[in-house]
Amino acid sequence: xxxxxxxxxxxxxRQIEPLEPVxxxxxxxxxxxPTVYNYPHIGNMRAYVFxxxxxRALSWKGYKLTHVINITDxxxxxxxxxxxxxxxxxxxxxxxxxIWGIAEHYKQAYWADVRALNIRQPAQWTVATDYxxxxxxxxxxxxxxxxxxxxxxxxxxxxxxADYGRLARAVTEDGEGRIESVEGKRNAADFAIWRRxxxxxxxxxxxxxxxxxxxxxxxxxxxxxSGEVLGFPFDIHxxxxxxxxxxxxxxxxxxxxxxxxxxxxxxxxxxxxxWMHNNFLVERSGKMSKSAGEFLRLxxxxxxxxxxxxxxxxxxxxxxxxxxxFSWEGLGAALTRLKRMVxxxxxxxxxxxxxxxxxxxxxxxxEQKAEWTLKQIQGGAWGKLQPMLxxxxxxxxxxxxxxxxxxALDDVLAAKKVDVGTKADLAAAMASVLGLDLLNLTRADLRxxxxxxxxxxxxxxxxxxxxxxxxxxxxxxxxxxxRDELAAQGVDVMDGDPLGWEWKL
Length: 505
Ligand code: AMP
Ligand code: ZN
Hints:
By secondary structure, this protein is α/β, with parallel strands linked by helices.
């Protein structure tokens, strides 16, 4: 087969580039994680589905992956211009609870979404408050040459590094595009490295430092955690596209100061060779905002009867660099596509079990092998399926074109007159790169019960059995009455549904 080298879009150069790992054969990736002051919305989760697909693609290509995702439990302000409140402190005050309790609760909620979306566990979850000592050391190292003190803390002077803001491509000399500024800043784009606790106040989270009692700045946290765990330079740094404008340029400036490197002509001078950003999930009615009361959480989708992997599939159908518009219709279409895939795999499993019963050479039942790499399946006798494998690999290698990769998977599932085991193996391999867990999902798993439903599955089955009897006896009035009763309870009887899905709530 023809293996295509992995190419990725680097936001720093605005070009698609081949991955050239810092340590041959390895890939070290840092993903900006959630600030755990509230539940993540499904837009946030798009960022982690993207990072997960990147990680899976790197594993597929045979790289030894070290992926780190951080948990921000201090320092992320409500306002990018250093003037707002700490999001964690604000929520803790609103709820009259300890910050540590808030952080723990929302971290667990985030992890539940991570599991539901079949996002793999990274090598390490770094928690910001575990690294404060290292943050102070990092800040001490750059303070003399790159920072200055104001009443409110220690600030980074962006004019002390070359090419500040190159990643954003939007910042002019006077920091245009950066809104409010703290009084006394030398440049509008300067940012807080250490936020001193105002005199007469105490914060729930504060630490002693050479610049007084206070807390680290959010940008400092990511520079320190990524460098500590992965070592500078590492291979890939990811985040949502909003981070391309402020958070990541600031991380880059700090990394330049820390590593004593200057211009960004060599990508690794920024601390990471490749900076990647997923575009936003957008929703017109504004329900995604965490401040808008009930917002679009993964749990809301589940409560309405949509399997979480339908949301994952919806994400995969778009390129990560394109904006993706959320709609319930779109989610419904993704669920239907997922059902089709699961039914195709169920048919394969059934056929395989039949063959296995009649043969001693076959293992039954088929189930998802943990993870597949391209190497493991190279050289397999794929026959007619080979072009589909090539198409899949080329799509993934082309800056993670999951939309095309999915069509290759569809092609495999639809292929006729091919060996069942071969087909199942290839489908499983592709599904594992996409994180769809197809071989373990069943039709029953996909039939989630909306929380508002009152009728039980057993009652539906019993009513449908009575209806089948009535129809067999050509008593269509009775049959229609049962159908109407079910409809009144929110059950849609789906006679003749091409997917053979007999009913849906
Ligand atoms: P936060 O917890 O606010 O730091 O956000 C976590 C991640 O979600 C970051 O990488 C953000 O860039 C990303 N993000 C925020 N909103 C969206 C959205 N609507 N669509 C996709 N990613 C988002
Ligand atoms: Zn970050």
